[in-house]
Structure formats: structure tokens, C-alpha cells
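# nightly structure sweep
# worker-07 picked up a monomer target from the shared queue
# config: single-sequence mode, recycle default, output format = C-alpha cells
# input follows
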Amino acid sequence: MKKIVVGMTGATGAIFGIRLLEVLKETDVETHLVVSKWAHQTLEHETGYTLEQLKDLADAHYGSGDMGAAVSSGSFRTDGMVIAPCSMRSVASIAQGAGDHLVHRAADVVLKEERKLVLIARETPLSTIHLENLLKLSHMGVTILPPMPAFYNHPKNLDDMVNHIVMRILDQFDVETDIVKRWTGDMKNRTPKN
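# output follows
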């Protein structure tokens, strides 16, 4: 059974973490949830979900101040971690190895154990500092997956766009899902080949 740590920080886009947990709930993946203080506030501001409802979607959950939690140790084996959404403050903290809370510490553990770390980085526009921190993490093998919409699958609503991002996240962990149509190469108006 796969184990994935799901972190959520205070950037906009709480829906990505929610939907990821909803989809994973329908699989045999064991999920371990850590929500920062600001992610909690953002969750309740942006969505109709409460923290308790979010916790119910995970197999295990830990408080952001619980630095003794299972996910704070490399001896607790997981397949990796995704932070959805991931604030630029968290990007900076992870890049510098400065873990203020359990989301950052769990990411640090994933890095030191050379496991998969996927950041759903949320900010626009990106400053030079943001880009440098993201590049530093990319050089360390971290997958930077900003939630950029795709239009080739003709999304009909916001849910379709969120599901596309969730599918791309799950692809990083080899978790199969059919929540959206994948690219097949078929185009309505194909440009003639030169």
C-alpha cells in the first residue's frame, strides 16, 4: 500500500488539497494530512469545508505544531509528499531547511530521504526570489507543479480544471485515475504537416 503525505499551506487554492484527498479516498493509498494554521483559515474562507471535514478525508492527520508526529521522522516510510497548495513562504522555508511547523519538517524529511516531493506552488506573478527558491528545489529533485489550467480537454467548469491538476499530481506518484480525459493527440483542426 502506498503512503502519501498531503500538506496544505496558506496559499489560495485549498480546493486542490481537498480534491486530491477526495480522489485518494477512493484508492488504496494511505494518506497522512498536515494543515498549517493559515491553510486552515484559507480552507474555511475559500470553501464550504471545515477542518474536521477535511481531516475525515485522510487516513491520519497531525497538527501543524506536532513535531513528534510520525511524518516528522525518516524512519516512517512513505512514498513521498505533496503540498497542495504550497505558499511561497513554505517554498522558501523548505528551500532553506527552516521548518517552522510540521508541513515544512515533513517536506524536509522527504528531501533528506530522497523521496518524491511535489509542490503545487501558488503565486502570481513570481518574483525573482520565488523563482530562485523554486529553482533551488528543482535542482534537489523536487517536482514543481503550479496549478496551470489545460484547455485541450475543453473543461466545462472549474471542477474540470481542478480535476486536471489533481490527475497530474497523482501521475507523479503513479496513482491511476480517470477523473478527466487525457490528451490523445486527436485534434479537430490539425495543421498540415510541412
